[in-house]
Amino acid sequence: MAFITANWNPLGEAFYRKTELYEMCWNLRDGLRDCLVAAAPYGGPIALLREPVRRSPSSRPQLEIYSASGVAIASFPWKSGPVVQLGWTVSDELLCIQEDGSVLIYDLFGSFKRHFSMGQEVMQSQVLEAKVFHSPYGTGVAIVTASSRFTLATNIDDLKLRRLPEVPGNTWSAGEPTCWVVLTQDRQTKVLMSNGPELYILDTTSCTAVVPPGLGPQAGSIVHMSVSFSYKYLALFTDTGHMWTGSSHLQVNTKKTTPPKQMVWCRRPKSQQPSVVLMWDRLLMVAGVTLTPDPRFPLEDPCVLIGELDGVRIISSANQELLQEVPLVCQEIFKIASMAPGALLLEAHREYQAASFGKCFLTDFSPEAFVSTCRELRVLNAVRERGVGLPLTHTQLVYRQFYPLAIEVCRYLKIPDYQGVSRVLKHWASCKVQQKDLSDEAIARAVCVKVGDSPGVSYSHIAAKAYECGRPELAIKLLDFEARSGEQVPLLLKMKRSQLALSKAVESGDTDLVYTVVTYLKSEMNRGDFFMTLRNQPVALSLYRQFCKLQEQETLKDLYNQDDDHQELANYYVTASYREKRLESRLSLLQTAVDEYNKAKNEFSAKATEEEMRLLRFQRKLDDEKGAGLLGLSLQATMEALLALGLHKQAEQLYRDFRVPDKRFWWLKLKSLAEKEEWEELEKFSKSKKSPIGYLAFVEVCMKSNNKPEAKKYVSKVTPEQRVKAHLAVGDLEGAADAAIERKSDSELAAVLARCPASDRQLLDRLNRAAAAAAKK
Amino acid sequence: MAAHLSYGRVNLNILREAARKELREFLDKCAGSKAIVWDEYLTGPFGLIAQYSLLKEHEVEKMFTLKSGRLPSADVKNIIFFVRPRLELMDIIAENVFSEDKMHSPRDFHILFVPRRSMLCEQRLKEQGVLASFINIDEYILDLIPYDGDLLSMEYESAFRECYLENDQTSLYHTAKGLMTLQALYGTIPQIYGKGECARHVANMMLRMKREFAGSQNQILPVFDTLLLLDRNVDLLTPLATQLTYEGLIDEIYGITNGYVKLPPEKFAQKKQGEASKDLPTEPKKLQLNSAEELYAEIRDKNFNAVGAALSKKAKIISAAFEERHNAKTVGEIKQFVSQLPHMQAARSSLANHTSIAELIKDITTSEAFFDNLTVEQEFMTGVDTDKVNTYIEDCVAQKDPLIKILRLVSMQSVCNNGLKQKVLDYYKREILQTYGYEHILTLNNLEKAGLLKLQSSSRNNYPTIRKTLKLWMEDANEQNPNDISYVYSGYAPLSVRLTQVLARPGWRSIEEVLKMLPGPHFEERQQLPAGLHKKRQQGENRTTLVFFLGGVSYAEIAALRFLSQMEDSGMEYIIATTKLLNGTTWIKSLMDRPESQSS
Question: So what's the ipTM on this one?
Answer without folding.
Answer: 0.89
